[in-house]
Amino acid sequence: MLTNTFSNRNWRRIFLLIASVLLALFVGHTQASASTVSVNGLGAADATITNDQGVTQSTTSNLDKYSAYQVHYKWSINDATKLANGDTATVSLPANVASSYDYSFDLTDAKSQAKIGTFTIQKGSQTGTITFNDYLVTHNTGRQGTLQLAANGKHVNTDNTNWFINKVGWLTNTTIKDGHPTTANWNIAFNPDNKDLTNVTLTDTLGSDQTYVPGSVKVDGNIPAPDVTVSGNTITMKFGHIDKKVNLNYQTSITGVPNDSHWSNAATLTATNGSVALNKTVHGTIAWGGNGEGNGDEQAAQGAVTLIKTDQWGCKHLANAHFNLYTAAGKLVKSDVTTDYRGELTVGNLKYGSYYFVETKAPRGYRLSSRHLTFTLNDKMPAAKLQVPNAKKSWGYCPSFHKVQIQFVWYHCVTWQWCLW
């Protein structure tokens, strides 16, 4: 009984040890299955920054935290670089911009629109990650592409002088629905010097892919609520008389993502200050998302075929047999390939598919074969081998190194014998 208990305990220990080893091997294999690959053109120094008007910005200048920018890359992967499904590449942003939100988007083939990978970045980060699938594993030559992503500047302007109206925006709900966030907030501040203004009208024009949330205009402090009217994408807010600083917010529902990866609004304030007519316009932008493309040429899998030419009994290998090689559709692939002194010829660098040889000139003393010598190359048979016999034009001897004896022609040529060709 004690022996059985001890034995059972030992078996359990052995089982747990084996399970632990297998688990460690599995985890180690899983972790090693993907790696970071070298991709040209994704460094911070490789980036080009443009503002919401498409104007190129310096990668070292102060860029406004509340303004949207596009960061552009042109990337490529060397043909010699081995890529596997799940491999990643790091994308580095210049030091003066960063992502304001978490987001992810697909990279696609420029022609077929097939997915080639996914780009992700976290809020506040200056590095993102491309995770490749197996598309560029098979399309593994001439691999190149582009990447554009939205970012905000990192500079906060603390100079509150010399402005009359200001506008900023941010996402208030980044839950993804139909491929995009759902709600944005827009903040407008004006009259920081508490000027005495009359006939104050604020006209806000919404950019693409957003609609005004009715009743969402809220004004801070003791400022009377404006008279709000909406016509299409234009929101008109009439205040009448104002002699204090105004700070207001309203919301828009997001219906899609613009091609330039940012939502924008333009606010125009008209008013009268004494005898001076005022008319000021400001823009607000919210940066989010991006897009990317890439492509590569598919290098077809390649195989090879070896043809061995013999006499009709297989006893003698024949040199100087000439052949043409065709695809199954009859297209000439290789002309006048010839067997060597061993009776062999080899043709490599053949795409997978079906082919046939046609003999164009037989070795001296042998009959020309009219057969189509067919073969197929594929994953299961990347290297084919054909043994092709030729009949002799006359009687002759079939030599061997075995004992001498006379046999009939239907015996194999394993000794000295009379053979009929």
From TrEMBL:
Localization terms from the record: Secreted, Cell wall
Residue ranges constituting the Collagen binding domain according to the UniProt record: 165-273
Protein name, entry field: SpaA isopeptide-forming pilin-related protein
Keyword Signal in annotation: yes
Main location: secreted
Residue span, SDR-like Ig domain: 63-155
Keyword Signal (UniProt): yes
Gene3D superfamilies per record: 2.60.40.1280, Immunoglobulins
Species for this entry: Levilactobacillus tongjiangensis
Membrane topology: Peptidoglycan-anchor
Stored Pfam families: Big_8, Collagen_bind, SpaA
UniProt similarity note: Belongs to the serine-aspartate repeat-containing protein (SDr) family.
Location of the SpaA-like prealbumin fold domain: 303-390
Annotated keywords: Cell wall, Peptidoglycan-anchor, Secreted, Signal
Domain of life the protein comes from: Bacteria
InterPro entries assigned to the protein according to its UniProt record, in alphabetical order: Adhesion_dom_sf, Collagen-bd_dom, Fibrogen-bd_dom1, Ig-like_fold, SDR_Ig, SpaA_PFL_dom_1
Signal sequence, start to end: 1-34
